[in-house]
Every structure is written in structure tokens, then in C-alpha cells.
Amino acid sequence: MGALQVDQRMSPTILIYSQDPDFFLIFGHILAVAGFETRLVHNEQETLPIAAEQRPAAVVMDCQPDDASTALTCQRLKSDPTTRNIPVAALIAPSAGLLHVDLIKAGVDETFSRPFAPEKLLSWLNAKVSARDASIETTAGDLVFGDFRLERRGYRVFFQDVWIAMPPIEFKLLRHLMARPGIVFSREDLIEAAWPEHATDADLRSVDVHIAKLRKTLKKALGRDVIRTVRSAGYSFAPHW
Hints:
By secondary structure, this protein is α/β, with parallel strands linked by helices. It has eight helices and 14 strands. The protein has a five-stranded parallel beta sheet with strand order 3-2-4-5-6, with helices on both faces. The chain has a five-stranded antiparallel beta sheet with strand order 7-8-9-10-11, covered by helices on one side. Helix 6 packs across helix 7, helix 6 packs across helix 8 (204-222) and helix 7 packs across helix 8. It is elongated. The protein starts with a strand and ends with a strand.
């Protein structure tokens, strides 16, 4: 039974924290050409809820030497369990020594001193996106993706170390989808992954039923939908769409 596997990954979103609209227009254009979506945020009050809701690939902070709010915003992002794994980069002036120290204390992931080559920041962003979109299988056969951990033995799912109960079939579906995030799998392929002994006579609609249950379970635990339906194609694990 052939599998339809289509790469439907969305363009990663970068939050740009800046009070300078000209900087956003120029830098946003550079990121757009490189395949990123961008969104401008001006202050901590905007950044925190948007980052928690949209889970961007990274936050890039346009830091001014006399603006202490950037370090405070970074500290808030890194102290919140919902946003602490979002990479944060800071663009700083060479003379902003104290701000540099404050940002490091706040947990910033990387700093770039002005003037900087855009290629260096793009390389850093691409590396973070690649790491974010990759699943890791441990020597014990467990699957790890971001805050998720799927333990093969016992069919147990954890998110941020909190157990999410689900039956074996939904576990197998989630594991198959999560092994290749963003890839759309056909219903036939998911049947082979979840109950291969019945692959020849399983009703394709039963996949929809189990996916609906899986989606409901995950949405209740995470507060958002991470299973994407692609019409006439199938389903994908898409935590960032």
C-alpha cells in the first residue's frame, strides 16, 4: 500500500522586537527573501502573549543601549514554560557592555554586535529552525520532539514532563506523525503504522475517528491544535502552524 508523504511545512515565523519601523521593513524584507514570515512587536506586553500563542521559530530583539526593556522581555520569555524554548537573539551596539551582561543573565541564546552580516543571523536562524523541526530517537527507542517525549515501552506520552494518557492506537499514530514533523501522511500509511495486521481491510474512516480522538486529547493537554488536516491528502504533526 503506497504512502502519500507530502512536505507541507509552513514558513517559520520570526518575531522582531523593535521600536524602529524602518529597521523592521529592511530586516523583514531580508528574512522574507530567505523564506521566513515576520511579525513586528514593540514591547513586552505584545511580545509575551504573541510568543505564547504563535510559538515563533525565534525572537530577534533590536536592542537600544538605553532600553532596559529588552533584557526584561528576554527574561520573561525564558522564565515562562510556554516560551522558554523559543530561541532569542539580540542585536546590540558594541558599546552596550552592561546591556550585553543583562541579556546573558536573562538567558539570551545569541548576541550579534552591530554592524553584523545578515548571513550570520540567517545561518543561526536556519540552524534553530532545523533543530526545532527535528525529532530525536533515543537508544531506548523513545521519541523526543521539543517538550514532547514518547516512550515506546508502555505507550506513554509526556509533554513538559506531564503524562498525557491515550490508547495504543493513538500513541502509534502520534509517533508516526511526530517522527517526521510537517510531512503529510495518507490514511493508508497511517493504517499501516497504527494497526498493520489489519491494513488490508481497515476502513479509512477509522483513521479519521482515531485522529479526531488524538487531536482532542492533545488540544486539551496543550491548549492548541497540533494535528493538521490536509484535504484529500491526509494528516501531519504541525506544532508551529
